[in-house]
Amino acid sequence: MADLLESTGYKIPALKRGQEVTGKVISKDRSEILIDIGAKSEGIVFGREFDAVRDLAAKLTAGDSVEATVVYPENDAGQVVLSLRKHSGDKLWKELEEKIESAEAITVVAIEANRGGIICEYSGIHGFLPAIHLHTQISSPGDFFGKTLQVEVIDVDRDANRLIFAQKKDAKELEDVKKLLSKIEIGQKYEGEVKSVLPFGVFVQIEDGIVGLVHISEIAWEKVDDPTKFFKVGQKVEVMASAKDEEAGKLSLSLKQLAKDPFEEISAKYTKDQKVTGSVSKVVRGGIYVTLEHGLEGFVSASKIPPNESWEAGKTVQCMVESVDVASRKITLVPYVLEKPIFYR
């Protein structure tokens, strides 16, 4: 082919690493794909590059057009080593967008549990299954690793690299759960048993065998970092039904709603311009969180901190109360100074 092209005076352009090319599949087997890209030799997809696109490879046949990326312009056999990862990714993201419309169930593999939910993998793409869209109960986070789940795609944004799933129930299971949920009264207290403790909360089984989620934010009025410090599987607890979605078959439970918010009583001790002493608990881009006493934090805006001062976690600081907002459970602080500077607000 190369000799024939040269005889016609056509010059074959040199290929560069990272260059995108278009070609047609010549053949494929269990370990490689040969592609005609119009170069002096065929292109080849093999090894790790083939393993990365096995799902796509299974669908390809001779004559199919593909877009590829040059990995090596020439290997020892004189072939152009190609990658189909980008092409595979383009097709996969498009398929995922179509699955939102069809609500078709897909199978994903759980690879990690965190405070928000489960990180899953689908054909090499990582997606997120939020805790509120999870139905499967297990006893510990490690049990999720490698577990397959049936989900539906509810949000796709390739530019933001965002892929969100919701676990899917079969029709009969969903109907059974709907019947049980119809008996649940929002605001009612229920006795329950802890079925699993995870980074994002606790699954509790209440009457008639229905299971609901106590999200980590609903465990206590104080911030909870690790639910395992409070609960264990089999523990008896009293919860309140805080929300339900009968169509989706979901029940949300709360523990903290059964207790009086301590902020109301504690915050009553703090008034505007009061001098307070606390410890820096967390430094964020917008400012500093200061622990005033157990279960109570105040916030100092970064704009109020003098540029020559460095506030680090653990440091003891003196502040003044700027405002107390009981409704939003916030106490705003400013650094304590002997005299308020000119133009201070």
Automatic annotation (TrEMBL):
Its lineage reads:
Bacteria, Candidatus Curtissiibacteriota
SUPFAM superfamilies per record: Nucleic acid-binding proteins
Any one Pfam family here would be S1
Q: Does the keyword Thylakoid apply?
A: no
Record's function text: Binds mRNA; thus facilitating recognition of the initiation point. It is needed to translate mRNA with a short Shine-Dalgarno (SD) purine-rich sequence.
Q: Which InterPro entries match?
A: NA-bd_OB-fold, Ribos_protein_bS1-like, Ribosomal_protein_S1-like, S1_domain
Share an example GO biological-process annotation for this protein: translation
Query: Has the keyword Ribosomal protein been applied to this entry?
Result: yes
Give the record's family classification: Belongs to the bacterial ribosomal protein bS1 family.
Q: Tell me which UniProt keywords the record has, alphabetically.
A: Ribonucleoprotein, Ribosomal protein
The GO molecular function terms of this record are: mRNA binding; structural constituent of ribosome
Indicate what this protein is called per its UniProt record.
S1 motif domain-containing protein
Source organism of the structure = Candidatus Curtissbacteria bacterium RIFCSPHIGHO2_02_FULL_42_15
- Under the cellular component aspect of Gene Ontology, which terms does the record hold? ribonucleoprotein complex; ribosome
Every copy of the S1 motif domain together lies at 18-85, 97-168, 187-256, 273-336
